[in-house]
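Box S1 | Example of a co-folding query
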Amino acid sequence: MTEHGFTVERFESIDSTNTYLMERSRAGAPAGLVAVADFQTAGRGRLDRRWEAPPASCLLTSVLLREPLPADELHLATAAVALAAVAAIASLSGRGPDVKWPNDLLFDGSKVAGVLAEADARAWDGAPGTTAIVVGIGINLTWPGPPDVGGTSVEAATGVGPGRDELLDALLFELEARRRLLASPVGRAELASELELRTVTIGQEVRVELSSGMIEGRAVGINRLGHLLVMVDGETRPIAAGDVVHLRPSLAPPV
Ligand code: BTN
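Box S1 (continued) | Returned holo structure for biotin
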């Protein structure tokens, strides 16, 4: 079925909507393909974690994008989906979650959704530099997530429990506008500004786990490439990708 420029395939049960779209992408599927499932038997989270949820308790969906993104801006595809989810939840419940950079959505500090983006440079549609990116998101609708995460659900945080189809429709509507922004530097800067406005990480003391090691400092902003700016020993460091832990709110206001 086509919705807001996306082609949606629905599954009662699947291994993982991300895995499925990655396979379809390698087989040449066009951009805009969306997979949504009631249940995943091998759902995947970041850092090789599993992502498990009871049937029909969450929106579990992935989208295949093929945008001409420079390598250091690929994560803006994550931002496009995360921000579309924020706007979609707000439009249906009256309250949007915050973004914990780069890929979690939080209500009052509790995780309500997570995004997993995977790029496949081998799978592209013919235009040089057009990397295939599969962006998956799991949004807790009525279930707060596994006990060790201390998460929440849209229903618990807002008092409104939108249906999965309704939320998917709103998400794709919001994503269509943001997907167009990914195509140009000006559009991407606009997306980065929206990300900065929504990111609750800014102003926090953070620990960032990078592939090259770990840093601690104060998150002070997001640049036009969508990188998190972290002040470490008086020096601002742009972080393109990493796992962030919020340590505590900073006493000093963000600059
Ligand atoms: C995270 O917070 O670690 C990211 C979780 C992403 C989960 C979603 S659910 C739909 C899609 N399919 C998957 O296997 N994972 C993502």
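The chain has a mean pLDDT of 91. The chain has two domains: 2-198, 205-248.
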